[in-house]
Amino acid sequence: MERWKGRVALVTGASVGIGAAVARALVQQGMRVVGCARNVDKIELAAECQSAGYSGTLIPYKCDLSNEEEILSMFSAIKTLHKGVDVCINNAGLAHNEPLLSGRTEGWRNMIDVNVLALSICTREAYKSMKERNVDDGHIININSMGGHRVVPSADEHFYCATKYAVTALTEGIRQELREANTHIRATCISPGIVETEFAFRHHNSDPEKAASVYESMKCLKAEDIASAVTFVLSAPPHIQIGDVQMRPVEQVS
């Protein structure tokens, strides 16, 4: 990770869970991390990282990823204040309980806007930033899900899984286009199984007991486990392309 010290990483969805853990880990490694979230007040890591004496810095940034104008404004601000993005961690994602046969279009659209379109826009803008500055060793990391590799047998999850299958396809498409562009910028997908965060409680917000049962059924992954996977991927030698890291609890069946 030595080569990343002082360089700029964007982490989306950095206020809680996996995003917060990834942001903390990169600051520990000496990176300048722009952590974006809809509610910037929830990004409490900046003071924590400073008091812990980490060698990097965390810069909170308010951004609604379902709004393209806000994303473009964020990249413009990063260019002005920090020159640009060297690492883009597309972590933000959400799920709504909207089955295919009875779900609301509004919920489907929100999942597409955040899980698919925002990821694609951030990737495009990060690549532009790298190319403008002749950065040839940048990295785009998409936090995916095991739901992007198999369909969970639950109507609550079907549309969410569809968006994550899209992330799997998009990551491979990005890798292919980067090769066609003759660049050494890399693209990686990290696909965790069940991670103990606030995710299930948001997904099953009307049934907290059901949400709690998801995490009580087994020893789940922790957000820090995903952060470790991110630093592992970033620390790989520049000639190694890590395509997809799939990780799940030992006790998880599928």
From TrEMBL:
It comes from the Eukaryota. GO terms for molecular function: 3-beta-hydroxysteroid 3-dehydrogenase (NADP+) activity; estradiol 17-beta-dehydrogenase [NAD(P)+] activity. It is an enzyme of class 1 (oxidoreductase). Keywords: Oxidoreductase. Its EC number is 1.1.1.270, 1.1.1.62. Pathway: Steroid biosynthesis; estrogen biosynthesis. InterPro entries: NAD(P)-bd_dom_sf, SDR_fam. It catalyses: 17beta-estradiol + NAD(+) = estrone + NADH + H(+); a 3beta-hydroxysteroid + NADP(+) = a 3-oxosteroid + NADPH + H(+); 17beta-estradiol + NADP(+) = estrone + NADPH + H(+). Pfam families: adh_short (PF00106). Belongs to the short-chain dehydrogenases/reductases (SDR) family. Catalyzes the conversion of the 17-keto group of estrone, 4- and 5-androstenes and 5-alpha-androstanes into their 17-beta-hydroxyl metabolites and the conversion of the 3-keto group of 3-, 3,17- and 3,20- diketosteroids into their 3-hydroxyl metabolites. Exhibits reductive 3-beta-hydroxysteroid dehydrogenase activity toward 5-beta-androstanes, 5-beta-pregnanes, 4-pregnenes and bile acids. May also reduce endogenous and exogenous alpha-dicarbonyl compounds and xenobiotic alicyclic ketones. This is Dehydrogenase/reductase SDR family member 11. It comes from Oreochromis aureus (Israeli tilapia). The gene is dhrs11a.
